[in-house]
Write a structure and sequence with these properties.
- This protein is of the alpha/beta class and 379 residues long.
- The protein has 2 domains: 213 residues, Rossmann fold (3-Layer(aba) Sandwich); 155 residues, Zinc Finger, Delta Prime, domain 3 (Up-down Bundle).
- Helix content is 51%, strand content 7%.
- The chain contains 17 helices and 7 strands.
- The strands form 2 sheets. Strands 4-5-6-2-7 form a 5-stranded parallel beta sheet, with helices on both faces. A two-stranded parallel sheet has the order 1-3.
- Strand 5, helix 8 and strand 6 form a beta-alpha-beta unit.
- Helix 7 runs parallel beside helix 8 and helix 11 packs across helix 12.
- It binds zinc ion.
């Protein structure tokens, strides 16, 4: 016990999430770390990164400072080959892959372990990314059973299983996981990451310590995004619009690096051409941008909402979120567009997003009718 008290725990991460880490570090130091923790927060803010820090700290065997980053335990926590330490959503086809033990010698078939290893490599390389798993992937009961079956081989080492995007467990998987939580094997810990805790079974929630992770500051988003870009990163790559659109999420900033410029440009054209009733040019531009998928069309409308809200902010003298795009917007040319018109436009965009999501008509038709309806009565 005296030895335990000498061990220092230090979980790394952005300064604005320090308060949550202090709670976890205190539990580690006092040797009362809960067997299950659920980390929630918006996508791309570093929930998996914190889960990996916890996994290292629990598996580390250094006598002075944990995680040390050097010992076998620390290395296992970040080793893509240690696929048993992870559960995450897979597509139906991926989840059906055989496990290594069931594949004939010499077979070239991809095993479940191979598939998982590929994903873990991506997570370890950039835990902030929000687009690693397929939109239709889920955590099936087979994946929970496969995890359970490895417990017998654990030996006496500390075992940490990260259940990433745990709110994508289907009903059967949730029930199987609940049973696991009811009888956690000794020296075994679970760290769940979820966008919303409300989507977990209440009986699972009640067995986990809840850690709510907050968004990062703009400066931290910039720092983390530059880190993701690596050594040859150029500061100009992370524009002010990218930071504004990210809303404190480095994962979102990473996504917008590629397409913020195109989406913001299209959004400002959408507003101006719609006000000028210049529909044929606008429809052509929309077609060129190929916004046929629901997620792509609604991703664009999110940016359009941002821009409309920014015009409102500018009119009321508040700071804008998309300074680069706003610099090119001349709303003085449209004197009738006042706060009421902008509020109404925001509601119309929201309605269109719902219509697109309902899939009753094609995304392109919804966007075209939005162009006509936008600022109706104020043009
Ligand atoms: Zn270590």
């Amino acid at each position: 016990m005296v030895e335990d008290e000498m061990i220092k725990y230090r979980l790394n991460g952005p300064a604005s999430q320090e308060r949550q880490r202090i709670r976890l570090m205190a539990a580690l130091c006092e040797n009362r770390f809960p067997q299950a923790v659920v980390i929630d927060g918006t996508p791309g803010i570093g929930k998996k990164a914190l889960a990996m820090e916890i996994s290292k700290a629990l598996q580390c065997t250094d006598m002075f400072e944990r995680p040390c980053g050097q010992c076998f335990g620390c290395k296992m926590a970040a080793d893509p080959g240690a696929a048993d330490n992870w559960v995450f959503p897979l597509t139906a086809a991926e989840a059906q892959a055989k496990s290594a033990e069931d594949v004939k010698a010499g077979s070239r078939a991809k095993t479940l372990q191979d598939i998982k290893q590929g994903y873990i490599e991506q997570i370890v390389a950039n835990p902030y990314r929000t687009d690693i798993f397929d939109a239709g992937a889920e955590i099936s009961v087979n994946l929970i059973r496969a995890m359970k079956s490895t417990f017998v081989m654990k030996g006496d080492r500390t075992r940490v299983v990260i259940v990433a995007e745990a709110d994508r467990m289907n009903d059967a998987a949730s029930n199987a996981f609940l049973k696991t939580l009811e009888e956690v094997p000794p020296d075994t810990y679970f760290v769940l990451t979820v966008a919303s805790r409300e989507r977990l079974l209440p009986t699972i929630r009640s067995r986990c310590l809840a850690i709510h992770l907050s968004s990062l500051t703009d400066a931290e988003v910039k720092e983390e995004t530059l880190r993701m870009l690596g050594d040859d990163a150029d500061e100009d790559q992370v524009s002010r619009d990218v930071i504004g659109l990210s809303l404190g999420s480095p994962g979102k900033a990473f996504f917008y690096l590629e397409n913020a410029k195109a989406l913001c440009g299209l959004a400002s054209d959408f507003i101006v051409k719609s006000l000028k009733n210049d529909y044929s040019a606008l429809f052509e531009e929309l077609a060129e941008n190929d916004l046929t998928e629901v997620s792509e069309a609604n991703g664009f409308l999110e940016v359009l909402s941002f821009l409309i809200a920014d015009i409102l902010r500018k009119q009321s003298g508040a700071a804008v979120r998309l300074p680069d795009t706003m610099a090119g917007m001349d709303m003085d040319a449209f004197p009738r567009v006042d706060a009421d018109a902008l509020e109404m436009a925001l509601a119309t965009v929201q309605e269109t997003m719902e219509r697109i999501a309902s899939r009753r008509s094609t995304a392109m038709m919804c966007l075209q009718s939005l162009a006509i309806k936008l600022f109706e009565g104020y043009k």
